[in-house]
Amino acid sequence: MHTDGIRGTSGRKGAVGAALALLLTTACSAATTDSTGASAAGLPTVRVALGIDASYAPFYLAEERGLFKKAGVNVELVKTEGGPAASQAVTAGTAQIAANADSTALPLMVTDPRLRALGVFQSSDRYLKVVLRNGITSPKQIRTMASIGGLGLYATHQYLLHNGIDPDSVKILQSSAPEIPGLLERGSIDGYILYEPWAAKGAASGGHITARIGDFGVRYVQWLLADQTWLKDNEDTAGKVFKAVAQADELVTSDPEAAAEASDKQVKLPVADTKKVLPEITFAARGIDDSDVTSSQKIVDFLLDQKLIKKSPDLDTTLLKGWYAQHTK
After folding, report:
1. Which residue in 8, 224, 306, 328 has the fewest CB atoms around it within 10 Å?
2. Looking at domain 12-124+220-327, what is its CATH homologous superfamily?
């Protein structure tokens, strides 16, 4: 999901560059229209940037079931490696809407204050898991971990603190999700915290799953985000996209088999693996509320303390309380 900078590590520019390269390749493989144009069916076209894992099953299912078109909008799914690459697509103008976790989006809102969180489409305290290398039987033995940025880094710090470990005493390497299980298998790291399928891949290649993020008080929400410059003229269109995602959320919950099959068709995720992890995620769409502001402030305080951001985003401006209820009727 995530390639934000990590203090004390190198390779940030290379990782972000790789993410953007993947993003641009994916975007260029899609049609070049945007919401200012129209599809063949005469519907506004919107590119939605998102990652490739089971947490995005509502988008895959909505696409397979034609829910976006039924809502009155043509959606092109721009599939990225996840993490900040999704919202960076919105900032770059290669997508109009992004799906990102709160911990990942908040630092991006500092560098791009036009980003707006429209609402929540899923949440979980179970989907991300702690994977430790075989032979590591206690967190006290950990000397090196790998982390994706955003949510991954936040969860890594909270895990260490929960176990009485100063995060500054552990070397935290920045990497992308697909690379991390290999680092564990080679013995380059002692552990990591990731979502599926990368947690299971680590467990199958020299590691074991020892905890879920909820075990140490971490929970994330995934937002739909848009750039305010685009949003101000396209709120009706954005609302149609979110309405379709909300309908798909309900279908994922009631028919995980169909969601798993759609994920396989869209991004080649194995059906059995997807069905296994979907119950770990709460798929329910809602508006931004006071609890989101409180949890976001906690994340921002962490980012400021780690000097990963220089100032706080304006949460009263960037988190659009009331938008979901108004625009998804």
Report:
1. 8
2. Periplasmic binding protein-like II (3.40.190.10)
